[in-house]
Structure formats: structure tokens, C-alpha cells
Amino acid sequence: MSAIRSIQAPAAVVMIRPHRFTPNPETAVDNAFQSAAEQGQAEALACAGHREVTAAAECLEAQGVRVHLFEDEGERDTPDSVFPNNWFSTHPGGHVAIYSMYSPSRRRERRSDVIEMLKAEYRVQDVIDYSGLEQDNLFLEGTGAMVFDHLARVAYAARSNRANPVALERFSTHFNFEPMVFDTADAAGQPIYHTNVLMCVATEFALIGLDTITDPLRAAEVRARLEESGREVIELSHAQIGEFAGNAIELTGRNGRLLALSQRACDSLTPAQKSRIERSARLSPLAVPTIEMAGGSVRCMIAGIHLSPRR
């Protein structure tokens, strides 16, 4: 396992701890990964979600990842705030992007205190704000809609309501990424709402549900592009995608790289897949079953900081 620092695997992250967590009915329309909350569950779900985020943050910090943990007391009615990776991203060289969000309730998740913390603690050169695109119904939900290869400068994106091609082209021009777009379908034939549930690009490998890409030729091109960048492609089945195995993120801890993913996702991997991953990154499973009811998992909970610390 390599301990070499990688710009693909950030050593610091932002997480949001929710105090009124609940699956968001507004986003359930196009998110097949969501589960509906039962009547009378609200308080129990909120307590469980709070505990899961607390434990996940503590686990990452114990491994040497710097976690900037922000509280969401619920005063802005933001049930999906636990997924901050959708409304902002950071990039080497001091660049920050703020994104346009598909669901009105998710637009309230954007927080000036998070951006101010980034400016205070890290070297930020510029902040490009795409949230105004919401007025034209052009949505691009950050590192949910896009999966970045920071090394080869590729932005992989599954077509959906949350990844508008005009917004993607504008972002790619500003941030110098090559957009690689494809159509997807889950096991029931529905488009997959976010790219980061079907693929994860790490430093030396990529997890991807190639079978979810509807055009076999395009799937082959995506595979080839990943392999050209020197990565080993580890294919995930439809069933594993359904268990959030694609919703993982590689981070850098004090003892090298680790792959943060949910316990459910980790349990779905085969021994051979785990062995291939652990040649490059230590598996770090986190138990977040309540959070996963909202249709996202560990990758969605973590906004990586690809900026240089000020100190």
C-alpha cells in the first residue's frame, strides 16, 4: 500500500452533522436509492443520523484525516444537508466552485461559513459561483453529478436532471476538465441520478458499474479512458451499485491512502475486489444505514478539500 501523497486523495474534508435529518420527499422523484421514512419516525431518524455522522467523522479523524465538521440545526429546513459535496467543490491551485441545485430545498444548503472557513484555513485564489444558473433551470450538482479524475483532468458525468450539459461545459471550460458524458440505467431501467453512486476514481484504481452505461461502445470508451490514466478498473455489478459500493472516496490519512465507504458497500464487495483495492488503499468502512435512507452514502457525505493549507 502506497503512502505517497496524491492530489486525487485529499487529506482534509468538510462534513455536516444534521440535527433534523430525514429522507427528503422532494428529491425522491428521481432518486431510486431513497427509502421513505415511516410516520412517527422523525425524531428517531434525526438522532440516528446525528450519531452516524459523529461516529464517521471520529473514525476518519482517528486515521489522520482532518475533518471540518459543521452543524446543521435544521433552522433552514435542509433535510439533505448531510451531503455537502453537491453544492461546492475545491480544486488544486486554490479554486472553489459553488453549484446550482435541482431541488429548491437543496439550494438552502449553501453556507457562507463553510466558504469563509476554506478561505481562512486554506489558500483560495477564486470562488466561481454557478448558483445563478438555477434561474435558467441549468443544474450541476457538484461531485454528485461529476466524478473527477484530478490527475488526468477528466470529469465523468451521467446525464440526468442534475447534470445539465450546458452547465457542465461551462464548468469544464473554467476548471480545465475534459467532460466525458454517458447515459445510464439502473437495474429497473431508470437513469441513475448521480454519477458518484456508480463510480469512484481513486489514485491507482477505479470502481465502476460499467453495465449501468447504456451504450456498450461508450462504456468501452470510459473503461479505456480510465485505463489510459494508469488505473486498474474494478467492475461493480448492478447489485453492488444498489448497495452503494460505487459511492466511495479515497482519502489520505497519516498512514497513507484509505477508501472511505459504507459498511453496507464494503460487505457487498467480493474478496477479490477487496484485495485489489487494498493493494493501493486501506478499506475504511463506516456504518451509516440511516443516512443511506436519503439515497446517498459515504461519498455523498464528504466534500474533499483539494487546497493547500495556509499554515
Describe what this molecule looks like in 3D.
The chain is α/β, with parallel strands linked by helices and 311 residues long. The chain has helices spanning 42-62, 104-107, 112-121, 142-145, 165-175, 216-228, 238-242, 263-268, 271-278, 289-292, 298-301; strands at residues 12-18, 66-72, 88-91, 95-98, 126-129, 146-149, 154-158, 178-182, 199-201, 205-208, 232-235, 249-253, 256-262, 282-286, 303-304. A three-stranded mixed β-sheet has the order 2-1-15. The radius of gyration is 18 Å and the shape is globular. The model has no long low-confidence stretch (mean pLDDT 92).
The assigned structural class equals alpha/beta
Note the main sheet.
3 strands, mixed
Mean pLDDT: 92
How many beta strands in the DSSP annotation?
Answer: 15
Q: Note the quaternary state here.
A: single chain
Strand order of the largest sheet: 2-1-15
Count of DSSP H/I helices? 11
Tell me what portion of residues adopts beta-strand conformation.
Answer: 15-25%
Helix content: 25-40%
What is the distance, rounded to the nearest whole angstrom, between the alpha carbons of the first and last residues?
A: 28 Å
Basic shape: globular
Secondary-structure element pattern, one letter each: EHEEEHHEHEEHEEEHEHEEHHEHHE
The radius of gyration over CA amounts to: 18 Å
Which spans have pLDDT < 50 for at least 5 consecutive residues?
none
